[in-house]
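Quick look at the format.
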Amino acid sequence: MSGDLIEWADIVFVMEKAHKSKVNSKYNKLLKHTPVVCLAIADNYVYMQPELISLLIQKVSLHIHLEG
């Protein structure tokens, strides 16, 4: 994650409360109008694990419309 990505984003999703805390503390000034949403997904999945993808789709779709 970088300041450029934070400035570009309309919303930031994180998996755990600890992630949200880190993002808020590091990028506080850049997050004035950008919500940070914690999805409450334990960070114990491997990259692209099907169960993780399913959880992400389920939880993110509560906040934004996903196409496809």
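Next, a different chain entirely:
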Amino acid sequence: MNVPVIHTERVTLREPRLEDLGEMAAYFRDPRSAWNGGPLERHDAGRAIFTNAGQWQLRGHGIWHVTLAGSDTFIGFAGIFHPVDWPEPELGYGITAEHEGKGLAFEAVETARKAAATHLGLTELPSFIAPENERSQRLAIRLGAVREDDIMLRGKLARVYRHPALQEDAA
């Protein structure tokens, strides 16, 4: 599995690791993880790590696990989520509660979006967001995404926010 490691001033986007299980299980125990398929039991959080790693292997793109710069501790994820029943690859993200409100999610998602466009040719990705997840909707808008028609995913309503193509000088 060849997952590019990307460093910014405050975060690192790297490959999923089984060593992330403790922090990822804690993230998925939080009721807020409902926006990303949670809450989950520890073994299901482990399955999510394998899914994240498997997407890189099978699709050539996937979810990066996010750490603070200079640390190797999982604080969230950002990247391309593309299960077999999704209509198209999605720019997905999540960050632990203790790291919210610091601009880290914005930095990680923007970095993942640029990498997806520049290195993987994936541009104008959507984010599928639950109608109740106002925080994620605000982040998508802050990233420049525009709302499109709602869709149904796995029996649940999702708002579609389409991220713009990058300008040449931004890539």
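The mean pLDDT is 94.

See the schema section for token definitions.
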